[in-house]
Amino acid sequence: MTLRRKREGPSAAFRPDIDPASSAPLARQLYLSLRNAVTEGRLSGGQRLPSTRLAAAEWAISRGVIAEAYEILIAEGFAVARHGSGTYIASSVPEGAVRPDASGASAVRATRRAVSAAATAILTRGPSLEPQKMLPFVTARIAHDERTARLLNRIAARHMNYAFEGYGDIQGEPQLRAAISAHLSVSRGVRCAPEQVFVTAGTQQALDLAFRVLMTPGERAVVEDPCYPPARQCLALNGIEIVGLPVDRDGIDITRLVDGSLAPPAAFYVTPSNQYPVGSVLSLPRRLQLLAYAEENDCWIIEDDYDSEFRYQGHPIASLHGLDKASRVLYTGTFSKALLPSLRIGYLVVPPDLVPAFRAVRPALDRCPPSFQQRVIADFIEEGYFPAHLRRLRERLRASRDMLAGFLRERLSEHVDVLLPDQGINLTVRSTGTWDDDTAVSAAALKRGVVVMPLSRMNVVSTDRTRLLLGFSGLSEAEADMGTRVLVEVFGAVRFQAG
Predict the structure, then answer these.
(1) Would you list the DSSP string of 154-171?
(2) Same domain, 153 and 289
(3) d(Cα 398, Cα 404) in Å, to the nearest integer?
(4) CA-to-CA distance for 287 and 262, rounded, in angstroms?
(5) DSSP of 381-444, one letter per residue?
(6) Quick one: 38 exposed, middle or buried, by C-beta within 10 A (0-12, 13-18, 19+)?
(7) Domain of 450?
(8) pTM more than 0.70
(9) What is the pLDDT of residue 111?
(10) Per-residue confidence (pLDDT) for residue 499, from 0 to 100
């Protein structure tokens, strides 16, 4: 059996605190520096100390001085020598030595350790975007496609060459930007040149970049109520005042703006093609009304078209960007749901005259997007695989949607009305009147291993607590069967009563 050679450990990066002007011997200084690192937990038990030859080169200290310091550590029990292997930090600290908690929690200070008000609000309100367990009805789950996985692996092998990598273009790889521009022109009616496209680390970075460039802290943004929580959090972190306007079956209602009840905002953030989380579509009359208002009042519109690829009935309504004649709309999308979230590739389309401002700000947030993933996606699109992949995915998602809706209507019609979406990977259910606390339902279901998201967590000013969000992407029939049976038990046992 071939033994794998053990490489350098973390201690190889250690740099001792040595004062050349001190009268203390170098060996004593080095010993104390190493000992302090051990007692403070910076060097852990079992870590191999660098050889005297390597340490001499790295620390600019003679090998004799290093050997003397190591001998003192060994004599006092802070290190052990292993013949033919080297010197290692002892697994236990000698009695009397103090090792604070590795997290630093034991170092209690009386000084105030505050974070920003925006960070505090996010910390206390949530919901969190921590990775969720793959339980029935969890949202943002990705449906695996074996054929696409093989293609991506094959394409990736072409570009796995780290020897010639360097910093890429601020806006992203030209090949991918051209592919995105062509795809959006055909699929969404977005009129843009590759020079207007910025490749980002998903939608979230695109939103942050747009908010930073377009808005000054203290200005106001109008959002849908309820609203995608990370977008609200991003606005808050950028010091933007948030105003929520209600959403109905025709999307966001801007009547209060049109009649003058509210002053014009600096920007709108909207999800017009599939309102998150309700699922309504912004009607064409309201799209035109919003565009006219933005043009008249010099407002920006950030259009989040996060899942437009998954349309199940009829033709997609034209994007706001495609209807915009005044260049007031910035368009953002992502490959996270259509391909893989781990690729972390999204995009932002900006008006031509704003490109210099976005190019100036982008490096302050992120020098450039990762080239490797971009090249893989660009080849996948340019070689014609993307449309076929989307067709397969749409059919699978449509089947999952219909299966879940069928289970819900068969078993839970007493408690919920199912709002069947024409687009997307989630569906919303509304109370029939037998319950009125979506957070309580969610908590009870989670205890039984099922995830249903309460929409009230996404409210801006609304007090509606009668809706739940269920994901159906990647959902198996067995999971749907088990999950809906659990929900029957939840509603039957807990008996949430309205009023």
Answers:
(1) HHHHHH---TT-----TT
(2) yes
(3) 10
(4) 19
(5) HHTTHHHHHHHHHHHHHHHHHHHHHHHHHHHSTTTEEEE--SBSSEEEEEE-SS---HHHHHHH
(6) buried
(7) 388-494
(8) yes
(9) 57
(10) 42
Could you give the residue ranges of the DSSP H alpha helices within 166-275?
A: 174-187, 202-214, 229-237, 255-258
3-state secondary structure of 94: coil
Q: Which residues of the chain have pLDDT under 70?
A: 1-8, 94-113, 124-133, 162-165, 494-499
Domain end residue (candidates: 46, 74, 89): 89
Q: Which residues contact 159 (CB under 8 A, 6 or more apart)?
A: 372, 375, 376, 379
The helix, strand and coil proportions of the chain, stated in percent and rounded to the nearest 5, come to 40, 15, 45
Type of residue numbered 278: V
> Where do the DSSP E strands lie in 22-155?
79-82, 86-89
**pLDDT tens, position by position, 87-145:** 999 888 765 565 444 444 444 445 556 777 777 777 766 555 555 667 889 887 887 78
Residue 444 is part of a domain; what is its CATH number? Answer: 3.90.1150.10
Contact by Cβ (8 Å): 145, 393: yes
C-alpha neighbours within 13 Å on the C-beta side of residue 185: 12
Q: Coil, helix or strand for 259?
A: coil
User: How confident is the model over 180-239, as pLDDT tens digits?
Assistant: 999 999 889 999 999 999 999 999 999 999 999 999 999 999 999 999 999 999 999 999
Tally the domains of the chain.
3
